[in-house]
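Holo prediction. Input below; ligand is fe (ii) ion.
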Amino acid sequence: MYAQMVKSTGTMKTREEMDERERAFQDRIDAGEKIEPQDWMPEGYRKTLIRQIGQHAHSEIVGQLPEGNWITRAPTLERKAILLAKVQDEAGHGLYLYCAAETLGVSRDEMTEKLHDGKMKYSSIFNYPTLTWADIGAVGWLVDGAAIMNQVALQRTSYGPYSRAMVRICKEESFHQRQGYSIMMKMASGTPEQKRMAQDALDRLWYPSLMMFGPSDKDSVHSAQSMAWKIKVSTNDELRQKFVDQTVPQAEYLGLTVPDENLKWNEEKGGYDFSEPDWQEFHDVLAGNGPCNADRMAARRTAWEDGAWYRDGLVAHANKRAAQRMAAE
Amino acid sequence: MSSEWPLWEVFIRGQHGLNHRHVGSLHAPDAEMAIRHARDVYTRRNEGVSIWVVPSNQITASVPSEKGPMFDPSKSKIYRHPTFYDIPDEVGHM
Ligand SMILES: [Fe+2]
Ligand SMILES: [Fe+2]
Ligand SMILES: [Fe+2]
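Structure of the complex:
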């Protein structure tokens, strides 16, 4: 989801093919033990985690852009303060995750550089524009809603620092979804035009939100190893189904229509049947051809480059103060 | 003449998967001995699965008298809490 197509390194081994260390490692994971930075781990586990946590971190940071777009245009001072607080939280989420990845022997600057060079990805969802205020409601409701679904599951992931970052993030996410839904409630019960805006936001963001969980399990080539290592704990389709089941009644309450003619309650499976998103579009967006990919990357690079003098200045100041302290001693 | 052992802050992970938490401090001549002492002082009743030690003088703390300006600004930001939003029960847990 926030990490959608994470390649896992190393072919899946059977127990017989594992050496003694690998077997002991797998046993710990199967027993539900957390792996900590000082523990031995297979190289593939480490690399896959760096990709997944890094991608997750990048998503938190890039994810600030579509919402940041509306901070200065929020309809009231209260909504502005709320949106600002939410975007600020996302910056913190990025920080927790970069720190978790850094325990695996990669630096934050390295990951940032890889993002800017197009060698690391972020969630496809943030390549869609936020055209109206209703989109800010829909993002909180649907995008954070989907993120929560994924992150709640990831609290049980096998890598200790990642799991603990998820616990912290999940505590903070609840307000994100609720403020989004509260915007939707206002819009959907407002003037006919406001209600139309709410419906339009749902129409445009529904399928991109379903894409957040990644490709269908039958096409998800990297999942098996990640599941065995408990880097992932639920499959893409499981989470997507849960998300639909949770969200449809919420749309109904708003009096909005989920843009899917095939949406139908299936008594037998105890969940909704629904249409899959357009996977071609998903792959196009991931490949860099979504409506906002170029904008998002340009904004990130500009922020990084324009901030360089400030980062360097603080280091120079710290060095100067350290030298003064040394001289005084 | 003997020189005084420096002070160390001790952090214990109580259970697999949890954060290390500060439990107290002790004196020791170096990091290795600090870990040994921490094991003997703070985990005699099976309190931990992992220990961190940090030289106390490496910790920078906020100033207690500046508690107000430090932490008060977050008090008014009640919208950071999920309970600020009235969400109807009908839509399920959110
Ligand atoms: Fe977040
Ligand atoms: Fe969020
Ligand atoms: Fe997130």
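The pocket of fe (ii) ion (ligand 1) is lined by residues A 60, 90, 93, 169 (CB under 6 Å). That is the main takeaway for now.
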